[in-house]
Specification:
Number of strands: 19
Strand order of the largest sheet: 6-7-8
Radius of gyration: 21 Å
Strand content: 5-15%
Number of helices: 16
Number of domains: 1
Shape: globular
CATH superfamily: Glycoside hydrolase 144 (GH144)
Structural class: alpha+beta
CATH architecture: Alpha/alpha barrel
Helix content: 40-55%
Length: 457
Amino acid sequence: MKRTALLLPITILLLSSSLARAEKPKSFDPFLDTLQQRTIKWFLEATPVTTGLTPDRWPSPSPSSIAAVGFALSVYPVAVERKIMSRKEALTRVLSTLRFFWKTPQGDGTSNVAGFKGFFYHFIDARTGLRVWNCELSTVDTALLLLGMLFCQSYFDRNVPAEAEVRALADSIYRRVDWKWSMGSLEGISMGWTPGEGFNRLTWYGYTEGMFVYVLALASPTHPVAGSAYDHWLSTYTWAEHYGEEYVQFAPLFGHQFTQCWIDLRCIKDRYVREKGLDYFENSRRATYSQWNYVKQNPGKFRDYSATIWGLTACDGPKDTTFVVDGQERRFIGYGARGTSSTWSNDDGTLAPTAPAGSLPFAPEICLPVLKAMRRSYGSQLWTEYGFRDAFNPTFVTPSTPNGWFDTDYLGIDQGPIVLMIENLRNGFVWKVMKKNPYIVAGLKRAGFTGGWLGKK
């Protein structure tokens, strides 16, 4: 499948900022070890060693998603640290992946190419690596792929030929990307480019998951964008109160999570959040609590919503249809972004485990209980040898789904944050490695981030 809102009085809502905060866990829960190990197993079994082309989804047949590959590249070092695979095994997978992407053809044609101007197409054939589905040259998905490569560049730091080759390939692939070209005549970086059609007129502007796009584009030693591009990113932020929390608004939780899967935004601030007196880590914590408050109140009266069953983000869904459930007409959708904010909300009763899992470092006190409750409440319908299936909808009750709808697939871009954010909660490992990458440091500084581990400007 192609991937392409009974308010309570404000005095009650504001309790979420103080009395209603849940108590933080006192130690690392062994359940998270099990969840992480099973999710890593999915990446290892679904991704061919010879190409490294992680499928967009599995077990349903699908092409590879370059974003899923970026997550896979980041999962391998975590697997080494968790003693699930050896450093040599991980190095073999990383090298085959980087070699494959370095050699795949680039060009402005509509077929027999994997990318153009250093960018890669969103979806590529799982065997050949060539463009499929007439999809776009994706700036954000290329950036996710690059984050995985740069993570490996910093992790594989030993003075041996194979690890030196990883560092060199990651450097060459990153330096090849023409970020300046990706702006076209726009004020910010375009979401994509399609041969014969040109640039998507929509740009990456705030606040979405795309902050890392600008971090990478600003840091480029070969084709950097100007600082005005980041000003464009900040120019459309919406700061508002929503379900008891004040924060920069974005409805699906993945937008508050993806950049921080790799980049530690604790205590470092750009000019916007500096003026607000917080950092993006705190902003994501507030967004997580806002969604928790929303689901507890359950204005749409969806089945099973509670303090321990929640999670709205971009994910699979039952299908595009409308019918009556519990005396109310319900509209359901397939794959799509779900979430709640002051500016936009979309909720059809579909929940995704990756939503609370991706927020574990921000609010473990409310995210860990939901993951354990999902496993306990739904058993093998949702919990398998590969961890959690992508999504489920208890409200989607039909003759063929009397207990609600449960996905049969796992999605790479939803599996990835589970592994990385569990590790960041455990010991900050992914963040620590990325702090060593000079491109990440340079990009943050050029975006105007200061303080914390970055120091003064």
